Every structure is written in C-alpha cells, then in structure tokens.
Amino acid sequence: MNQRILKNLKPRLITGLAFGFGVITLVYLNAFTYVSLFLFFLVAGIWELFALFENQSKPRIKIFSIILGITLFSMCFLHASSNFDSRYFAFLIPAFFLLFYFNLYTNSTQKHFAPFVNLIGVLYVALPFSLLNYLVFSSSGEYEPLNLLGIILLIWTNDSFAYFTGSMIGKNKLFERISPGKTWEGFVGGFLFCFGMGILIGMYLGNVPKWILFAVIMSVFGTIGDLVESHMKRLAGIKDSGKILPGHGGVLDRFDALLFATPFIFVVDLFL
Q1: CA 213 from chain center: how many Å?
Q2: Which of 174, 191, 197, 243 could tie 182 with a disulfide, CB 3.0–4.6 Å?
C-alpha cells in the first residue's frame, strides 16, 4: 500500500468510524432517532443536489421541494408503522405539478429546467429514503432496526473492500470516463466480501437466500449508484457533493449506493 493511499486512508477511517458509530446508534435506539437522522440526511441530500445542478429557483421554491420530500418520507413512515390511509398519497400527485407552476416566478437562465431539478431532488433523494420505512418496520408496524442495519452493513462492506481491493491490485478500469479510480478488481473484491456478509447476516437474522439476493443487489446497483453520482459531479465540475464528512464528502457521496439500490431492494422485499 503506497504513501498516497495511507495518506488518504487516515481521515477516511476516522470519519468513517465516527459516522458509522453514530448511524448505528441512532438507528438502533428507537424509531424517533431513526426518523430524525434520516430526515436530516434527506434535507441535506436534496440541498446538495440543488447545489450540484446550480439550481436557480427562488429559496421558497427550494423549500417547497424539501417540504414535499419530508412529506413523502413522513407519509411512508406513517403508512409503514400504522394504519395510515394510503389514499392520502394521492395529494402528492398535484403537489409535484405545482413545481412547474412555481417555475413561472423564477428568472432563470440556467440550462437545467428548474422544475426538473426540484423534481429530481425529491425522486432521487427523498423517495429512496422514504422507502426505507418499509424495510425497517414489519408488516404489523413493529420497529425492526436490524433489517436496515443489515442493509447498511452490506453497503459499507462492499464500499470498503472495493476500495481496498482496487487500491491494492486494481488495474482494469471499470468505467474510466466517469470514475477513473474504479476498477473491475475492486468491484469483484467488494462483491465477494458483500456476498459473504450477506450470508452471515442471513444466518443471524434468518432467511439466508433473501440476504444473499440483497447482497447481490447492493453490490451491483450500489456500484451503479456510485457511478451515477460520480457522473453528476463530473458534469457539475466538482469533486464532492458536500463537506459534511471530511474524507467522505457530503450526504450524496456517502449514500449514493443506498439511494440507488433501495428501490430495487424494496421491490424484491415485497415478494420475499
């Protein structure tokens, strides 16, 4: 392991351990701390996405988009944890179209059409975080944090071992135009360790086949999510989406895999 890797590893390791401990603790404690944590991630993530696309919408329109994202998360939380009437989700449909109406009051010269940026902020960030509610609550509404912690552990296992494997033996570029640092060797290393972690989690929580499938989804679609976010940053000409986590960037940098893979996990979980 060369000097450059060691230099980059220290801040990543310190921040990663502190961040990981905080996330695990708050998710494990109770539903209130879980909701508070992921609402914070949701708001920060949407705001980072706005900055990424240089969203020129007026502040009140951005705030409306964030409120829309918070509402979506809250409704999914209530629906997953209680007998919340699913018909209320219908109110979100006209709310999305209001984003286009609000754009009439924006004097924007940007290339990106502001309503689409606001809409992407809700769909790309708020929707996946909202779907997590259905993974963390049982069909009877009981809070079961170990399911979410298992998914997070799969992501961290894949990311960590993909990074270490790629740094040590990586030669063949995975998608050089988008992310020059990623290699096929790193992807395979992350996949194998994530697969193994899926088996261990399945043995502990039960249903090994389901967790093996979750591991495959997290490794494959999590990597794609990383590439998607890298592409957005490359288009924006920036290295990190934010500066919340030294050595790791922002919320989008830390949760790019989770955001992209969660919808696939959600769909698979419906049938298992």
Answers
A1: 19
A2: 174
The CB-based long-range contact list for 92-100 (8 Å cut-off, 24+ gap) reads 92/68, 95/68, 95/71, 96/68, 96/122, 98/64, 99/61, 99/64, 99/65, 99/68
> pLDDT tens, 119-128?
888 889 999 9
User: In angstroms, rounded to a whole number, what is the distance separating the alpha carbons of residues 128 and 122?
Assistant: 9
Which amino acid is residue 265, in one-letter code? I
* Integer angstrom CA distances of residue 177 from 227, 230, 234, 235: 10, 10, 10, 12
Taking the model in full, what pTM does it have?
Answer: 0.89
Predicted pLDDT of residue 95: 87
What's the pLDDT at 240?
Answer: 73
| DSSP track, 138-202 | -TT--B-HHHHHHHHHHHHHHHHHHHHHHHHH--SEEETTTEEEEEHHHHHHHHHHHHHHHHHHH
Kindly report, residue by residue over 2-32, the tens digit of the pLDDT: 555 555 566 667 777 888 899 999 999 999 9
Q: What is the mean pLDDT of residues 109-127?
A: 74
